[in-house]
Amino acid sequence: MTVRKAWIAGTVVVGSGLSFVMLLVVGVYLVAGDLAGGAGGGTKRLAKGSVPAAYQPLVQKWGNLCPAINPALLAAQLYQESGFNPRAQSHAAAQGIAQFIPGTWATHGVDGDGDGDRDVWDPNDAIPSAASYDCSLASYVKDVPGNPTENMLASYNAGAYAVIKYQGVPPYKETQNYVRVITTLEKSFAAPETRVDPSEQAAGAIAYAQEKLGTLYLWGGNGTAEQGGRFDCSGLTKAAYESVGIKLPRVANDQYNAGPHPSREELLPGDLVFFSDDLTNSRAIRHVGMYVGGGYMINAPRPGAVIRFDPIDTPDYFGATRVTEDGAKALPTTV
User: Fold this and answer.
1) Which of 304, 290, 318, 230 shows the shortest CA–CA distance to 10?
2) Which residues are CB-neighbours of 290 under 8 A, at least 6 positions away?
3) Mind giving me the DSSP string for 217-272?
4) Rounded Cα–Cα distance for residues 335 and 88 (Å)
5) What distance in Å separates the CA atoms of residue 249 and residue 259, rounded to the nearest whole number?
6) Cα–Cα distance measured from residue 171 to residue 163, given in angstroms and rounded to the nearest whole number
7) Is 287 in the active site?
8) Active-site residue (options: 70, 151, 157, 233)
9) Residue 281 among the catalytic residues
10) What single string gives the DSSP state of each residue in 197-216?
11) In tens digits, what is the pLDDT along the chain, a chain of 335 residues?
12) Apex CA 131: angle with CA 128 and CA 136, to 5°?
């Protein structure tokens, strides 16, 4: 849902490009299957721009407060709670970037920046408090068998007493889902340590997008009959992956969190590629396309243009996401 800066002619490689793209899909995936080795993996290093630059040093520092957490996990919690919005407030009176309710803040809020107050609306206090609270919960359940991080997250959702009672993640659907969501989102905020697994659904998503080549752009377009089957950038990528059973968020900057982030050198057809005027903040992403190989993507570029192939190597290239089914399911519906 945005305007790109640089464009090439709409007719580029559209005719011969279809066979070119499918050859790339087949060839690149054969190579990737040999190289990937089934490895994904998280790390304590944050993915580029995944946390807004203003908060990244805080998340990096406080995310290493205790062994049960790491910066990517802390980032996943903040994103899930508020979408990194320091003024967020829920109907249940949860406040700030970390969504503390007043009672919990009174007990667990800390003066993270040492200025003499504890301000739930100030990320300099709220982010350290979130990490400190996580570590306190981890200490409460440190003798419980199982994964310490999962036990900590379960304590955050259901209370430490429930984790102690059941000697692990309790059999509550809500709690089990919370643990799954945060540990899955963690992978989107961590810089991969090894090559990321290819996506099984990528070829089908590309095939869908190819069928839309030449369709006129529509701001806010989701491809419905009422809209004449037209799309904007994130509407196209959402529909393409929905055609293979993966439901993505509507806007581009949330689609960035639908999986791990391969480097430019590791891109495979089907990866989503993102563009922004602020290369330090994924929340500022304003355009998305679908990589097809050879340095090109299919995208719905801007009003007045048609869905077409464009190069990705422009100054506003932000990064990429390899969409996973679990990653898409873990995304909050609103952030």
Assistant:
1) 304
2) 205, 206, 209, 236, 237, 240, 270, 271, 272, 273, 297, 298, 299
3) B-TT-B--GGGTT-B-HHHHHHHHHHTTT-PPPSSHHHHTTSS----GGG--TT-E
4) 9
5) 12
6) 10
7) yes
8) 233
9) no
10) PPPTTHHHHHHHHHHTTTPB
11) 433 333 333 333 334 444 444 444 444 443 333 333 332 233 468 998 999 999 999 999 999 999 999 999 999 999 999 999 999 999 889 999 999 999 999 999 999 999 999 999 999 999 999 999 999 999 999 999 999 999 999 999 999 999 999 999 999 999 999 999 999 999 999 998 888 888 889 999 999 999 999 999 999 999 999 999 999 999 999 999 999 999 999 999 999 999 999 999 999 999 999 999 999 999 999 999 999 999 999 999 999 999 999 999 999 999 999 999 999 999 986 55
12) 120
Q: How far apart (Å, rounded) are the C-alpha atoms in residues 9 and 195?
A: 34
- Reply yes or no on whether 299 is catalytic: yes
Nearest Cα to 149, choosing from 182, 188, 100?
Answer: 182
Residue type, 177: N
**Set 66, 261, 281, 287: catalytic member:** 287
